[in-house]
Design the sequence.
């Protein structure tokens, strides 16, 4: 019998991140499942307010990087209605508004869907995907959840006279601009570079760096006056005013921004959640197993620790554990800031 393939450990440390237990599913008093991960909250200068696990371990932010990519494009001259700018920073569900919005971005710049270089996919949202399939739809680039970002990437190439074809190449002027903007907003140079699921270059950063960036975006939006807003403010305001375009109906990120006006929030695949507050503080969460259900309860618990009024967030802070159709427990965040938990 052949030996199992060796585990390839992260090159930056030679060991796995020291994650801590953050959330638990309890069924009739027994801890049935535990999710480990890391979390950090930062102040308006990027200083650490609280943390658990290993928040300085490099990780891939996945789609939570999109607001930073949107800031880069606005800095380069992208001008869109607020709903379409929010879609630029979105992992959308694939509703008609989302798909048509991506098409509008292209049409405004004389482009067609043939310009898109993202992957083919069905709508991300369950209801949206079922409706699309009932109507005979197939996987397309417009229905893929990153199409708003890709439409704007093609558009900014037109605006600046850059080649549209090959806009995903790391050496393309657009991606060089994005890399510089990510470094500026996070205060970090990437610990590694990969490719995201949709095809865009992806940077390994820390939770502290990502939280710092979201704090800047949220504070810029809160401080924006009557004059033309900065790129950070424009993106933050668009996301705040159009949370339904950032994710979609029945999506917890959309609900978070609706329930807590002034917050700028974005999730990412593999258990990532970012939330920036109007005063520049921010929370960043990474769930180690990539599970989706733990990121929002953990985020709400971290916000609570920052003395944010989380009573309005009760609908997304926990979920019931059912047995035979009745409530027999709950899935909820642990008290991960207790030293006895995080050791």
Sequence:
């Amino acid at each position: 019998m052949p030996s199992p393939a060796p585990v390839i450990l992260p090159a930056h440390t030679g060991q796995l991140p020291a994650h801590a237990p953050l959330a638990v599913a309890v069924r009739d008093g027994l801890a049935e499942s535990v999710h480990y991960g890391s979390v950090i909250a930062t102040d308006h200068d990027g200083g650490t307010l609280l943390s658990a696990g290993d928040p300085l371990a490099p990780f891939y932010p996945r789609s939570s990087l999109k607001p930073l990519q949107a800031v880069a494009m606005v800095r380069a001259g992208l001008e869109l209605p607020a709903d379409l700018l929010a879609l630029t920073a979105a992992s959308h569900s694939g509703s008609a508004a989302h798909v048509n919005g991506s098409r509008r971005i292209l049409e405004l710049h004389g482009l067609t869907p043939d310009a898109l270089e993202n992957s083919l996919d069905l709508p991300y949202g369950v209801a949206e995907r079922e409706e699309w399939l009932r109507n005979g739809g197939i996987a397309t680039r417009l229905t893929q959840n990153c199409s708003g970002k890709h439409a704007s990437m093609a558009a900014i190439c037109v605006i600046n006279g850059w080649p549209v074809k090959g806009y995903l190449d790391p050496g393309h002027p657009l991606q060089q601009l994005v890399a510089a903007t990510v470094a500026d907003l996070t205060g970090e140079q990437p610990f590694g570079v990969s490719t995201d699921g949709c095809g865009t270059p992806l940077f390994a950063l820390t939770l502290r760096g990502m939280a710092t960036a979201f704090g800047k975006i949220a504070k810029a939006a809160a401080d924006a006056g009557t004059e033309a807003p900065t790129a950070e403010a424009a993106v933050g305001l668009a996301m705040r005013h159009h949370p339904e375009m950032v994710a979609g109906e029945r999506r917890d990120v959309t609900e978070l921004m609706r329930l807590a006006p002034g917050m700028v929030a974005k999730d990412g695949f593999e258990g990532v959640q970012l939330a920036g507050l109007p005063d520049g503080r921010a929370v960043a969460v990474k769930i180690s197993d990539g599970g989706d259900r733990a990121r929002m309860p953990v985020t709400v618990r971290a916000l609570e620790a920052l003395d944010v009024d989380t009573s309005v967030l009760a609908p997304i802070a926990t979920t019931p554990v059912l047995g035979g159709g009745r409530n027999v427990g709950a899935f909820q965040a642990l008290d991960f800031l207790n030293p006895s938990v995080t050791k």
